Amino acid sequence: MNIGPTGVYNQAQFRATDDRKTKLTIAKTAVANFPSSIKFSGVSPYIDYVPNIRYAEVLLNLAEAEAEVGSQTRSLALLTAVHQRSDATYDFGTLSKADLIKAILMERRIEFLAEGFRANDVLRRGDPLNSFGAGAVILSSDPRYIYGIPLGEIQTNPAIGK
After folding, report:
1. 105 within a domain of the structure (yes/no)
2. What is the CATH classification number for the domain harbouring 55?
3. Disulfide-capable partner of 19 in 40, 82, 86, 118 (CB 3.0 to 4.6 Å)?
4. What SS3 string covers 20-46?
5. What is the domain range of residue 113?
6. What predicted TM-score, i.e. pTM, was given to this entire model?
């Protein structure tokens, strides 16, 4: 789990009193000297129940849409409802449109920690990718930004790429 300044673990919105932090993460493990997720504890054959969509996702999707083109008041109410399930005393205060969207995206990172949503959110918003493998920040205008077409698809359909 990223504990750096851009990582989710040390964000102000993810306080030590948040139930998601206290119950779904651990500060150290026997093999890692850094915070790790314990959200999914089942071992092979990986029998943890993982729903395809959760109510929190529906609310955060609606909050993001409202923040972008609808009511910022409703958006903040939805964001607050999701966050205060696990941290009842947190107050977002008054937020500008840009700050409200940032808070919603951070809430998505917190709520869906270790569920595989982050890459889709980054790509959907056109945000830069921090690529440790490339050793660079990859901007949305870079050809490496999008996923390549799988070789099997290219072999099956020779018209791809023409």
Report:
1. yes
2. 1.25.40.900
3. 86
4. HHHHHEECCCCCCCCCEECCCCCCCCC
5. 19-127
6. 0.81
